[in-house]
Amino acid sequence: MTDPSAIDKLLAQARNNLDRVQVEDLADEIAQGAILIDIRPLEQRQREGDLPGAIVVDRNVLEWRLDPTSPHRLPIATRADLRFIIVCNEGYSSSLAAATLQELGLRSSTDLVGGFQAWRARSAAE
Fold first, then answer.
1. CATH architecture of 6-125
2. Which residues contact 9 (CB under 8 A, 6 or more apart)?
3. Which of 46, 60, 75, 97 is most buried as measured by Cβ atoms within 10 A of its Cβ?
4. Domain boundaries along the sequence of the chain
5. Which pLDDT band, with edges at 50, 70 and 90, does 44 fall under?
6. CA 111 to chain centre
7. Residue 67: left if φ>0, alpha if ψ -120 to 50, beta else—which one?
8. 33, 115, 66, 17: CA torsion to nearest 10
């Protein structure tokens, strides 16, 4: 058996502190006030479609837009205790992004297990 790669170790470490959201729990999370953030690149959103109810924030400016102390924050980023659920395509980069938000003090930030693809599969099955 080979040792995990450095990125696999970093991903596991990031996920240790996340209360990750299962796709079947997403609607309840949103009903309780969670804010859905789609960090997928424009090309993926154009190809795969939008995530209803999500706010699109480019990954390269995510921290500046969601940090309530940043002069470049979005109007919704008013408090550090907001629950942001980050969504990428398959749930990998979103885990790293949510962990970074937690490091900024946004302790309730997390991500969607399986990302947009898991959401799309569940939506198609319903």
1. 3-Layer(aba) Sandwich (3.40)
2. none
3. 97
4. 6-125
5. very high
6. 4
7. beta
8. 90
DSSP codes of every residue in 6-20: HHHHHHHHHHHT--P
User: Alpha-carbon distance 93 to 87, whole Å?
Assistant: 8
The full DSSP string for 64-107 is: HHH-TT-TT--TT---TT--EEEE-SSSSHHHHHHHHHHHTT-T
pLDDT in tens, 50-91: 999 999 999 999 999 999 999 999 999 999 999 999 999 999
pLDDT exceeds cutoff 80 at 2: no
Q: Token pair for residue 122?
A: 């569940």
